[in-house]
Design brief:
heterodimer, A: eleven-stranded mixed β-sheet, six-stranded parallel β-sheet, B: alpha/beta, six-stranded mixed β-sheet, elongated
Amino acid sequence: MAASLHSTNPLRDPADRRLPRIPEPCALVIFGVTGDLAKKKLIPAIYDLANRGLLPASFAILGFARRDWSHGTFEEMAREAAQSHARTPWREEVWARLAGNFKFVPGSFDDDAAFDKLDQTLDELRETHGIVGNAAFYFSIPPQAFPTVLKQLERTGMADNRQDGGGWRRVVVEKPFGEDRESASELNGLVDRVFTANDVFRIDHYLGKETVQNIFALRFANAMFEPIWNSNYVDHVQITMAEDVGIGTRAGFYDDNGAARDVLQNHVLQLLAIAAMEQPNGFEAEEIRTEKLKVLRAIKLHDDLEATAIRGQYTDGWVQGRPVVGYLSEENIPPNSTTETYAAVQLGIQNRRWNGVPFYLRTGKRLPKRVTEIAVVFKEAPHMPFADYDTKTLGNNQLVIRVQPDEGLTVKFGSKVPGTGMEVRDISMGFGYGETFTESSPEAYERLILDVLLGDKTLFPDAQEVDASWAVIDPLEEYWAGTKPEPYESGTWGPTGSDLMLQSSGRRWRRA
Amino acid sequence: MHLKDTTTGDIMKALSGLLHEVGGTSGLALNLVALTTEDEREEVEKAASVASQEHPYRLILAIPRDLEAAEPRIDAEVTVGERLGSAEAIILRLDGPAASHLTSIVLPMLASDVPVVTWWLLDPVRYGLEAELRTFADRRITYSARAADPVESLYRRAETYTAGDTDICWTRISLWRSLIASAFDGVNQAVEHITIKADDDDPSAQLMAAWLHTRLGVSPEIVDTEVERNSEHLPAIASVAFTMDGGETMEVQREADGTTVLRQAGLPKRRQTLQGRTLGQLLAEELRHIDPDTAYKRVLDTFQEHYQAERANA
C-alpha cells in the first residue's frame, strides 16, 4: 500500500533510499489522551518522528478526553510528555513546528455534541492546514468504551470519509482484542464494519521492535540458519517474556484477565508465529499474514494439560534488592483472586517442519528481570568422538534471539578449552544491535505510528490472527477455570510446576 | 598510546593489546579510512566520533605530514573508546614516501570482512593518492564544496566516477529533497518550469538541479543568489519554485534562521524547520548504506551532461 501511495510522485524513486517515507498531510486523533500510553509512548513517539523529519509538513494532533482543557493546555501537557519521554534529544525548533498543531476537544464518549465538534474540527483542518480529510483515530481507551466510540464515529460519518471529500480514515486499536474468541469476534466485527477491515490497525507493539523484524532477515536472508530450522535439528524452542514489575496500576484490568490473556495471547504467540512460520512469498502484508495464520492454526495444545499448562501467582518476596508484596495484597485485588500472574505452556505445531518439537512459552510478573527472548535449542550432535568426561559441561547448541533488552543474537556452541587435553566447553558468541548498528533503534511506537499514517499493514495482526490466537488460549482458560494458580515467590523464575513441565522430558528452562 | 617511528605490525599489536584490556572486540560494522591534514584533524575526529555511535568502526586516520622527508616514517596513536567515541582508532602521521605508499600501510590494518569506506577532506590528487585509494575502498566519500573550485571538483568526480563514490554535497541536500518530495505527494500535474535560487558555485545546488531534471524531465533554471547560511554544511539554496502546466505554482523557501515555508496554490502556507547538520551527522548518513548509490549516479550523470553542454556554449 505504501508503494501505491507514492507511485504517482515522480520524485520518489525506490532506489533513492535517502528519501524517507513520509505520510501524506494528515491528522492523528487520540482518544484517551490523558492516559499513560499517550503520555509515555504516543506523544513522545510523535516528537521523535518529527525530530527524524518523518512527519508531513501538515500534521495535526487532536486530543479527546473528559477534561476541561483548551488547545493550549493540551499542547503544554504534550510538550511536557515529549520532553520527559522522547528518545531523541530535545530540540526547540522541532517542537516549534509541532506547536500550534495541537487541538483539544473536551467531552465524554456518550456526548454527541462533543463528537460533532470533533468532526467539525477535523473538517476545519482542510482550510487551516491543507489536510484534506486524512485522519487516524487512536483508541488509547479501555476496551469497554470501544463500542460507544465506534458508534459515535459511525453516527458522525467520521469513520468513512468517502462522501465527505475523500482522504483516508484509519483506526488504531490496542490490545486486548477481546477476552476470548467470542468477544474478540464481536469486537472485530464491529470495528471492521464501522471502518473497513483494511483500515483497522491492531497494535501489538512487539512487532514494531527491530529485533522482531530482524527475525525475518535472519531466517530468510541467510543461507546458514534455515536448513537447520526444523525438527531434524531443533530439539525444542523456548519463548520467554519476563517482567520484573508487578501489576502496577492496572489492578482492575489485570485481575479480570491474567497473564495468559494479557501477554500470551498476543505478544508471545506473535513471536512464535514469526519464529516458526514458513517463508512468505514476499514481504507484502498479505503474504506474511498468510504464513503466520498457517502456523497459528497449526498449534495444538498437549493432551495432558495438567502437566503442560501451568499457572502461577506471585507471593511476597524480594525483587532486585527491594521487598515487594504478593499479588493478593496488591491494592484493589480481591484477597481470594485466582488470577494468574505467570503462565507457562507447552505447545506443538502440527506441520512437517515442527513435528515432535515442543514449544515452551512462559510469561510472568515479578520475575528476576525484564527479558524477552526466543531460544532455539538444538539436538545434541549425533555422535561424540570424545570421552564423556571431556564433554561433561557441553550443553546443547543454542541460538537465542534477544528481543529486549540488549537486542541482539547469541549463539552458544562447544569449543576446546586451551590445554593439553581435549576438554570441550560451551562458549557464546553475541551480536548486539546497539554495538553494530544505531546507537538506539527507533521505539516500536515510532515505527508503528508511522506505518499507520503510511497505510502499511505489514506489522499489524489482523482479525483472523486474533481469532486463531484465541483458539489457542480459550481451552487453557477453560481448563484453568475454577482452579487456583500455584504460588511462587516474587523474584524467582516462577512456580515449580513450570520447571517440572520441562524436567519430565529431561529438559530445563534456559536461565534468561 | 603513542608509537614513534613505528611499523604496522607494532601498531596492530598495540591495538589488539588495548582491545584485550577493554574486554575484547564488539561487532565492527566497517573500516573507515579518513585522509586529512593536521589543521582539519580535530574537525574530522569530532565528526568521526559522532558517526561511530551509529556505526562502530575501525577508524584509520591518515595525516600526510612532512612530504619532503627523504626517509619514510610512521608515527601512530592508537586509542579505543576515548575521545573518538566507540571507535577503535589508529591515527597515522606519515612522512616522505610513507604518505604516497598509503595502501601498503592501510591494507594490513583493515578489519577483515567488513567493508572499507574512505573519506577525504583533502585533495587526493595533490597527494598523489587518488589511484591508490581506489584499490581497497568499497565506498569513497568526498566533499567537493571544500575544493578550491567546488563545481569543477564535482565535475571531476563525475568524470572519474567509480561505483561506490559519493559526495557530502549530495548528502547535505537529503532533507531539502525530502521536503520537496513530500510537497509533490498528491500532486498529479506535470511540471513546466523550475527556478532554483541558489549560489551557482555550490555543488549542492547543481546536484539539486540535476536531481529535479532527472526525475521531472525539466531542466531547472538556477538564478545565482547570495544565500545566507547559518551552517557551513547547509546547501547554498534559498528557494525552489515550480510552475505546473496548468499554471499553478509551488515554492519551497528557506529563510536564514531555518524556517522553511511551503507555498502551494489552493493550500495554506506550511512551515517546517530545516537546519544544517553537523559533519558527523552527514557522515553517519553516508555510512548507512554501503552499496553504491545508484540514484546519486543518475543525478551525477545529468549534472555531467549539463556541465559539458554549458562549457561547450561558453
